[in-house]
Design brief:
alpha+beta, five-stranded antiparallel β-sheet
Length: 366
């Protein structure tokens, strides 16, 4: 996992409070700048690096409902897609991103978590130490109770991260989460062409290599970023496949929603295949349906659990009285929830909520 020789060695020092405040302010502005995802991650990493210097990093997007990684960007590092996914979901290792999302502090160094002995970590022994990496600082980007992304920053031996830097990473997590959330939900790309007509199926062997694939699956893979016509080599496969397959190995099956290259949403469902030699995983790729996307879109606008329930009933065309009866609340309470939903989504009516916020995500597959 050694660093690519792209950046000069960084100068590590303490976190200065003035620099920390400036970076926080700039991250807040950056999160509202309307950037596409790749540009936002690149600029956010550069800003974070001003207060937490690092030689390399790996950033991920997350499905907030399942905490499965949906994308991966390595900065100044080689990729370890299948190995990294297996460590995250199949190994009981330290500082897993889902665990950090649930913690009071969403960031921690590997040295902190292992009590000063990183050799206790399988990830350190297998992926970090062979590449000369000593320090790892992990952060899950959480806002409004939902995790939208994560990052692991690395330092070459003998340098490590400090507790103050871990605290700084936690403080910077919320604006980064807002930026990732906005980039995932905002549609920067025009949709071109029709989506595949049928679900696609891939069969992965016990080393997460493609054993067989259907024609529609190839089209869905292109939607997820795999170069059309290129061999299905493991190092070229979309990272979301590794993550959902590894999670299926843990829970027997797993589902994740991924934003495709055209702006369409894709559902990847993985299940462990029984029988035969070795543990294989079948992955079904298809267009995400409205029910599958409703919780994600609601989370993207920071809706509360009750507001999500109201918005889903609005999508079904229910009137205020019907919503009140369904949720056992008063009409006035429904109206108050709707007012809050409209403010968060930036709309003024039910029609705008359905047409401009929700249906633009569903329409490609309806």
């Amino acid at each position: 996992m050694g660093f690519w020789p792209v950046r000069a060695a960084c100068q590590h020092g303490g976190v200065r409070e003035t620099a920390r405040s400036r970076v926080l302010e700039r991250l807040v502005r950056l999160s509202g700048a309307g950037l596409d995802l790749a540009t936002f991650i690149d600029e956010a990493d550069a800003l974070v690096g001003r207060v937490i210097p690092h030689e390399g990093a790996c950033w991920h997007t997350l499905d907030p409902a399942t905490m499965i990684q949906t994308g991966s960007w390595t900065l100044n590092l080689p990729s370890h897609g299948a190995e990294a996914a297996e460590n995250e979901y199949l190994s009981d290792d330290f500082n897993r991103f889902a665990d950090l999302a649930r913690s009071a502090r969403h960031s921690a160094s590997l040295t902190e978590a292992t009590g000063g002995d990183p050799l206790r970590s399988d990830r350190f022994r297998r992926l970090m130490r062979p590449g000369g990496i000593r320090g790892e600082l992990r952060t899950t980007f959480v806002v409004d109770g939902a995790g939208w992304g994560s990052a692991a920053m690395f330092r070459a031996a003998p340098d490590d991260f400090t507790e103050r830097e871990s605290e700084a990473a936690h403080e910077l997590a919320a604006p980064v989460a807002r930026g990732i959330r906005a980039a995932l939900v905002r549609d920067h790309r025009g949709r071109s062409g029709a989506p595949p007509a049928a679900p696609g199926l891939l069969l992965l062997d016990d080393r997460q290599r493609v054993e067989s694939v259907t024609g529609p699956a190839l089209q869905w893979l292109a939607e997820l970023g795999h170069p059309a016509g290129e061999p299905l080599q493991q190092e070229c496969l979309p990272y979301a496949l590794f993550a959902v397959a590894a999670r299926a190995g843990q829970d027997s099956d797993a589902t994740v929603r991924v934003r495709g290259a055209s702006g369409r949403w894709v559902t990847a469902h993985a299940s462990v295949v029984t029988g035969g030699e070795g543990e294989r995983v079948a992955v079904i790729l298809q267009g995400a349906t409205a029910p599958a996307l409703a919780p994600l879109i609601a989370a993207a606008y920071g809706l509360t659990r009750r507001e999500r329930a109201v918005s889903e009933l609005v999508l079904q065309g229910q009137a205020t009285a019907d919503i009140a009866a369904s949720l056992l609340i008063s009409r006035h309470t429904v109206q108050e929830h709707l007012k809050s939903i409209f403010e968060k989504a930036g709309v003024r009516s039910r029609r705008e909520l359905v047409g401009k916020v929700f249906m633009r995500h569903y329409r490609p597959f309806l």
